[in-house]
Amino acid sequence: MKQVVSFDDVLAEIAVLVRPHFGKGRTAQYIPQLAAVDPNQFGMAICTVKGDEYAVGDADVPFSAQSITKLFALGLALNRIGDEVWTRVGKEPSGTPFNYLSQLEHEEGIPRNPFINAGALAVTDILLNITREPDALVRDFMGLLGVANLTIDEEVAVSELETAHKNRAIANLMRSFGTITHDAEAVVEAYCRQCAVTVTCRQLARAALPLAARGFSPLIEETIFPERLTRRLNALLLTCGTYDSVGSFAYRVGLPSKSGVGGGLVAVIPDHATVAVWAPELDRFGTSVVGAYALEHFSQLTNCSVL
Ligand code: GLU
Fold first, then answer.
1. From 108's CA, which of 10, 121, 180, 189 has a CA 20 to 30 Å away?
2. Which residues contact ligand 1 via a Cβ below 6 A?
3. pTM, whole model, 2 decimals?
């Protein structure tokens, strides 16, 4: 892993290189508040394990973290109950869309991985054993690591809850199999509120930094995850972090990454840095079009890749 170019220059170059890719995707249409976000925004931030930060464009504009919160929720659950998490959810790529229902019935309510919606609902159910407000727990955990006071966007949360029919179906199916143990509606509500956490690229790059620093946060000088767990979280990001386009995403970018339908993406360069990017237009898999191009250019320009 070598970085022979300056990150400031790389970010400036990427901001130019991504311009032709605006207009190729659409904002998340199934969540009205997200559908209405101005698509012509782009921010990118890098945070190194030494604590240096680099940013370009709208890197300090808050956006809806959505599925990126699943990474932090999983980290909390694994820290709390360890491998018991894996009795409730698998570790395999799903090969199906993030809110797919039929696979779940076929596989008796055990979600393929913690990053598809079914898996994240199982993680929320686990966190409900620890706190009545898993959404606040995840928000505060991300805020602690991101050195920021994060908020839950109530309008986004309500907007998603009003249209969360598919997630309700998933939660009820899991409840029928016993892989969700709390009231399905309470699980969906906590999950949607967690997804509505807002974050900036700079805060997100900081929050993910323990994944690049063997579990240690250089910013708050605390060990957040055991080193072995950090490697495992990165493995899950690489194999399951971008849903059913995870293979082509790894081919293009080669970094453990997590996407969200708010248009955010966060990528980990182990032992080196984290990169967060945001551009609201999504491809058909729910990943930021411009964000994926930005990370592809980043790994090409810097030779930073785990592959
Ligand atoms: N809140 C979104 C949903 O459940 C998250 C999906 C995503 O960001 O990929 O549909």
1. 189
2. 66-67, 98-99, 117, 160, 167, 195, 260-261, 286
3. 0.96
